[in-house]
Amino acid sequence: MPKTITEQNLRFLIDALIRDGKRVVGPKRAGTMTLYEPLGSGEELALGQLPRRSAKEAFFPLSEPLLSFRKDREGVTVTDVDLGRFPETVLVGALPCDAAAPQIMDAVFSWDYQDEFYLQRRRLTTIIGVACTSADDACFCTMVGLSPTETRGSDLFLTPLEGGGYACQAVTDKGEALFIGHHELFAEAAAPTPLPPARPEGGPVDLAKVKAWLDEHFEDAIWEEVATRCAGCGACAFLCPACHCFDIVDEGTAEKGVRRKNWDACAFGKFTNHASGHNPRDVQNKRYRNRFMHKFKYYDDKFGKTLCTGCGRCVRACPVGIDIKGILEAIMKYE
Amino acid sequence: MCDHGKNIYKPHLATITAMTDETPDVRSFRLEFQDEAVREGFAFRAGQFAEYSAFGAGESTFCIASAPTRKGYIECCFRAVGRVTEALRSLEVGDTIGVRGPYGNSFPIEEFYGKNLVFVAGGIALPPLRTVIWNCLDLREKFGDITIVYGARTEADLVYKQELKEWQERSDVRLVKTVDPGGESPDWDGRVGFVPTILGEAAPSAENTIALVCGPPVMIKFTLPVLEKLGFGDEQIYTTLENRMKCGLGKCGRCNVGNVYVCKDGPVFTAAQVKAMPQEF
Predict the structure, then answer these.
(1) Phi-psi sector, A119: left (phi>0), alpha (psi -120 to 50), beta
(2) Residue A103: how many CB atoms within 10 A of its CB?
(3) Average pLDDT over residues B19-29
(4) Domain check: are B12 and B128 in the same one?
(5) Does one domain contain both B47 and B147?
(6) For the segment B83-97, what is each residue's pLDDT rounded down to a tens digit?
(7) Is B46 found in the same domain as B20?
(8) Alpha helix (H) ranges present in chain A?
(9) Cis amide leading into A241 (omega within 30)
């Protein structure tokens, strides 16, 4: 029989996990918006609104130390970050577009070299996803092969029910472990009736066709047409669940300092600037072209996946109105 | 490749044991790893690069310029042109820097056995080929004729000047050195002309020959047609691409040319591969 959980018990589950010493991250009200933040109690969980930023910060912080260094009379000492110190985490209330992204990013962070800063956090995190019952006109998960009820990427998946509460599905062993560890909070129901899922506009896009077009159209008028206006603000990259470019910088002096890994964005003007002053992507539309190509062609070429989950945050945030789903639709019309 | 342990971003510590000012703004370092296991075990192939740290300033990407056949030390060569390279240049013999690597692919030296080699380099692009040159000279009997065409804007801009003398004096190497018109001094004993032009005049045979070319984009642009005219096919020509890098190991998303990551799929490419890339480098 399918398992269910009441609204109340979901919050008790969060309290229990916190008591167990786990870090619980979930959508939390922050002024007028909702953000994925560490929760102090089950009361703080605020479902029903798309968090402004993605959940990638749970695995890939905006800024993190990689090592520290110190110089004294004996020479230089480099001190490692303790990679065993990341807390066990439960990410509760991840929308399907946010839950599906880490699985996509796993490929690049484990490509030959294992980035333990990301991978360790992934191992230690259990994701509880929740189906969407509403969408706005920027949402386009259905265009990129996902949906408001997609369970891919979640360990446990909650579907809102008529009358309140959620149907619960263990997608992985980690999800199953939550049932076992907190079985008293779950009930069984013969035929729970889910609320109707959200219906984002826009049917599925033939991503293979888009990639085939991109394979041949690195040079094309479309890039100037859609992206000359790009302001290079980087909001798209920072809000995106799948963007993962970063910078490595030293802070401090030669005597004492820290080396950090910080978010970066290919939208920024100096991203590919050589020390000589030569810049392979010297105008903004070339930088936007790289973003689009990376998501819909290069990541597929390298890892067999599309680097976009259709969350629509870039569409909502772009100050100059660049609409990535509009570009997908335009490409679909060619040929 | 040395095990970095769990933290792939943690560099090995190396001491600067010697340095040379190759030109007024180009310096080379000889480096010895401080950890004995690393010193004994560090191995790399010609063409690979490393990330060199000036702690406090950051990391910079240069090829490993010494030959892989020489053990116990590595060398690098760089132009002081920004914050990190200026910080590196401010260091002294005995100081410590960080080294992460080796990264990238390499020249397939074994596939060159039994062939003639033509090296074409310009200015500060000699170091990536210098590693191959010494690798091959250390195994001289495995290769046919070795020709080196190397030039710079002026005499002062030539790097590895001492080694140019050694190559010139060897009977088993043909060195053709040149400077741009106007770059010669009164007692310059080499040629005068741009590298692609001098290469055309030296006219090495393409028969059973591999060409290795390294230089600024403008030099490569004019050298490839010269090689083509001499009969070199795109699979016979190797070059290295450089791009702004940070992680050096395929994650930070900075160095890609189209779907090619210079740090993982390169930096060594054949001319055929370069021509197939979108021209954004």
Answers:
(1) alpha
(2) 15
(3) 96
(4) no
(5) no
(6) 999 999 999 999 999
(7) yes
(8) 7-19, 96-99, 101-109, 116-123, 173-181, 207-216, 221-227, 235-239, 284-293, 299-303, 313-317, 324-333
(9) no
Q: Which residues contact A197 (CB under 8 A, 6 or more apart)?
A: A131, A132, A133, A147, A148, A149
What is the domain extent for residue B125?
Answer: 109-237
Q: What is the pLDDT of residue B221?
A: 87
Query: What is the pLDDT at residue A335?
Result: 63
Cβ neighbours for A172, distance < 8 A, ≥ 6 positions apart? A155
- The CATH number linked to B138 is 3.40.50.80
Determine the distance in angstroms separating the CA of A188 from the nearest CA of chain B, rounded to an integer: 44
Asked, for residue B226, whether it belongs to a domain, the answer is: yes
**A chain contacts of residue B256, beta-carbon cutoff 8 Å:** 290, 294, 298
List b or e across B122-141, with b for residues whose CB sees 16 or more CB atoms inside 10 angstroms: bbbbbbbbbbbbbbbbeeee
CA distances from A309 to A148, A208, A242, B175, B276 (A): 11, 15, 8, 56, 30
* Chain A residues closer than 8 Å to B82 by CB: 275
Interchain proximity B252–A255, CB inside 8 Å: no
| pLDDT given for residue A221 in this prediction | 95
> pTM, whole model, 2 decimals?
0.94
Average pLDDT over residues B19-38: 96
CB contact under 8 A, A67 and B10: yes
Q: Does residue B256 form part of some domain?
A: yes
pLDDT digits (tens, 9 = 90+) for B91-127: 999 999 999 999 999 999 999 999 999 999 999 999 9
Overall average pLDDT of the B141-170 stretch: 96
The answer to whether residue A305 neighbours chain B at the CB level (below 8 Å) is: no
CA distance A37 to B211: 57
**pLDDT tens-place string over residues A43-55:** 999 998 999 999 9
The helices-and-strands tally (H runs, E runs) of chain A is: 12, 12
Q: How many domains does chain A have?
A: 1
Q: Specify the number of domains making up chain B.
A: 2
Model confidence at B217, pLDDT cuts 50, 70, 90, reads confident
d(CA B227, CA B271): 11
Give the range of the structural domain holding residue A128, as residue numbers without chain letter: 3-333
Instruction: With CB atoms and an 8 Å threshold, state whether A248 touches B252.
Output: yes
Residue B189 within a domain: yes
Probe site for chain A from B26, B244, B257, B281 (most A CB atoms < 10 A): B244
> What's the confidence (pLDDT) of residue B5?
57
What DSSP character marks residue B200?
A: H
CATH number of domain containing B86: 2.40.30.10
In the numeric block, the tokens 């870039």 are attached to: A314
Give the CA angle between residues A252, A256, A262 to the nearest 5°.
40
Does residue B130 share a domain with residue B155?
yes
Looking at the fold, whether B100 and B124 belong to one and the same domain comes out as: no
- Has residue B44 been placed in a domain? yes
Contact B259 A301 (CB under 8 A): yes
> Which residues from chain B sit within 8 angstroms of residue A306, using beta carbons?
none
Residue of chain A with shortest Cα separation from B8: A115
> Which of chain A's residues have a Cβ under 8 Å away from the Cβ of B250?
108, 111-113
